[in-house]
Design goal:
Length: about 650
């Protein structure tokens, strides 16, 4: 992985030296993405300047340095990511009569040659991997930007006056002197609902993020094309509706296992130390099990633990690691370790982002980087194989709720909300001995309050929106804000809702996965110069998952059935079977304790009034409800606090 940045001065009035200086300052702002080297390239006649920050993973020699010029001299590229099938492509490209030979053995050089021989779109379709690309065509004097299929690698862009800017992170654009930091209040409204800003929008007006699976072009005269798809998750989902696998279950599961083994073996290629995150859950345990099948020595695995049992998976992860035979490292972190991360959040996630699991993600990334440079993860398993509670319990509940009048459901919801989350947790703790194990859950009080907030939904899509919301009515909280409509909120951009579970899986994979999960992991890992790889997100795995029959996604009340059947070949059931925990920290209690003073300053009536973004009464009411224990509003409060601290960090008025 690396960091890329650049600009086009459409006036063409900037010298080569100045273009390189500006590009360098943009790249320096995101230097943790690539600590192993920096390079710039400029063409003043076209006004283009490029910067690359290198995290050396494959071909550690000078032949892998970027910006890289193609063999013909026509193309110049800066690239962030990895192309896992580059060796196969290399062999194919060598057969061409026009092939002139290789200078090194980097995947970047293979990408350039593929584009040279096959053209951009065919080249993009041939790449298996994660990537954000900026490619300058010296012949057409045109810049091409492209992003990988599932959105693992980010790419932001904006036209500021007479200059076009792009970068791996928003901070690269903000490093440009003429960048205007004008908050988009509509984006802010959507941020309050989801705790992230839905792509292709950003928190700033006139700044965008390139959507996954698309490319766009920028001409030297200032013409910017609309992004064009070269791959579509929606097309995969729609095509799969009529192509569900009908082979015997064992054949389907065996094929999936072989496919995963091939992908994982390919993703273990690196010229630097490599390991994996291991939580002890289904996804990471399966990835590590299959890695060990491909490895010649024990795989290095990493876990962090907490003394709070409600948030600790380290014991289970250690047992899984011992059974598989990995070289396991665990680190127990204190509340102070986690609290010390909070002042860095706004700098690392340079756009407001308030998924609180960002804190343990950063902690485990930091610890992992002390031992390896590359780590594989289980990200994507939940979205593709039906792992979230909403995919099975949520859908089952909706089938019952939709037959109950909305008015009656509202009364039921009010009854639940009359009891505080803490009281409900205590009640469930007393009843735990008689509750069936598959119905047990972590923090039941909070989950019941979440249920109450969705019970008055009038449709399945409204129900899903409520399930995935923090602030249910953010437009009443943001002054003069109207929620943005993201592409996938348009029904024409969605598959059929006949199968509600499959529909929810698609919505999660198209929105929550790239905008939350992958954003969280990319920024946390890149902040400590760690490359992460997610085998489940290989497009062959994604396309295969769309065709799984529903009984191989969920069976007998269990999620991710197909993955479980593979995992049980390597790890006993008793080490895996437990309630899904997630990757969290007790922010709710910290806001009432060690973070209270910090929060009070950011949420003071005077501060809220001076900033002018939020309805002070609404925010203060939510804060007081949380402090009293009447409601668990920590998601909503954390939303606001992260935005307020982000404003301070980036001097946004």
């Amino acid at each position: 992985m690396c960091g890329i940045a650049g600009l086009i001065d459409f006036s063409k009035s900037t010298s080569s030296e100045q273009l390189c200086q500006i590009a360098n300052s943009m790249g320096y702002a995101q230097r943790s993405r690539g600590p192993d080297g920096a390079g710039q390239w400029a063409d003043p006649e076209s006004g283009i300047g490029l910067d690359h920050r290198r995290l050396a993973i494959i071909d550690l020699t000078e032949e892998g340095i970027q910006p890289m010029i193609s063999s013909s001299g026509r193309f110049v590229i800066v690239f962030n990511g990895e192309i896992y099938n580059y060796r196969v492509l290399r062999e194919q490209l060598e057969k061409a009569d026009s092939f002139q030979g290789w200078r090194g053995h980097s995947d970047t050089e293979v990408m350039l040659e593929a584009i040279e021989q096959w053209g951009l779109e065919k080249g993009l379709k041939s790449f298996s991997g994660m990537f954000a690309i900026a490619l300058w065509d010296r012949e057409k004097r045109k810049l091409f930007l492209a992003r990988d299929r599932m959105g693992e690698k980010p790419l932001y862009y904006s036209k500021q006056g007479n200059t076009f800017l792009f970068g791996s992170e928003l901070k690269a654009l903000m490093a440009y002197d003429g960048f205007k930091k004008k908050v988009n209040r509509n984006s802010l409204s959507s941020y309050l609902r989801y705790h992230y800003v839905p792509a292709p929008h950003t928190i700033f007006e006139n700044v965008h993020v390139l959507m996954p699976g698309t490319w766009a072009s920028v001409s030297h005269d200032g013409t910017i094309s609309k992004p064009k798809e070269y791959w579509s998750l929606l097309d995969c989902a729609r095509e799969a509706e009529n192509k569900i696998f009908t082979a015997p279950d064992t054949d389907i599961i065996d094929t999936l296992e072989d496919l995963l083994l091939n992908v994982i073996e390919r993703e273990m290629i690196a010229d630097v130390p490599l390991g994996a995150f291991l939580s002890g859950g289904i996804d990471s345990s399966l990835i590590v099990s299959l890695m060990q099948q491909c490895a010649l020595s024990p795989v290095k695995t990493f876990t962090i633990g907490f003394d709070d049992k409600a948030y600790n998976e380290a014991k289970e992860a250690k047992l899984v690691a011992q059974h598989i035979g990995t070289e396991h490292t665990e680190l127990y972190v204190s509340p102070k370790d986690a609290l010390d991360i909070i002042p860095t959040i706004a700098r690392i996630w340079d756009q407001p982002f308030s998924d609180a699991s960002q804190i343990p993600t950063l902690l485990v990334s930091r610890m992992t980087r002390e031992h390896v440079t590359v780590a594989l993860s289980g990200d994507g398993g939940d979205e593709l194989f039906a792992g979230y509670n909403r995919h099975f319990r949520g859908c089952s509940l909706w089938k019952k709720l939709e037959h109950i009048p909305v008015s009656l459901r509202s009364i039921m919801a009010e009854a639940i909300l009359q009891v505080s989350p803490e009281s409900l947790n205590e009640l469930f703790a007393m009843l735990e001995p008689i509750i069936p194990e598959k119905l047990r859950m972590r923090l039941p009080g909070q989950k019941l309050h979440k249920l109450a907030n969705v019970m008055d939904a009038e449709s399945a899509s409204d129900y899903y929106t409520a399930l995935t919301s923090n602030w249910l009515n953010p437009e009443t909280t943001v002054m003069s804000g109207r929620e943005i409509v993201s592409p996938f909120q348009n029904r024409s951009m969605q598959p059929s809702t006949k199968n509600l579970t499959a529909w929810m899986q698609f919505m999660d994979a198209a929105t929550y996965l790239p905008d939350d999960i992958l954003t969280k992991v990319d920024r946390a890992a890149m902040a400590v110069s760690l490359e992460t790889r997610a085998p489940f997100l290989d497009h062959e795995i994604v396309e295969f998952s769309q065709r799984l029959p529903m009984h191989l996604r969920m069976q007998n009340g269990q999620s991710k059935y197909a993955l479980r059947k593979i995992l049980y070949k390597y790890v006993p059931k008793n080490l895996i079977e437990r309630p899904k925990m997630g990757f969290g920290i007790p922010i709710d209690n910290w806001l009432r304790g060690p973070l209270r003073g910090w929060a009070e300053n950011l949420l003071s009536p005077e501060r809220l009034a001076d900033d002018g973004y939020f309805n002070g009464r609404t925010v203060r009411k939510a804060w007081q409800e949380h402090l009293s224990g009447e409601k668990d509003n920590h998601y909503r409060i954390w939303n606001i606090l992260v935005f307020q601290s982000w404003m301070d960090e980036w001097d946004v008025s």
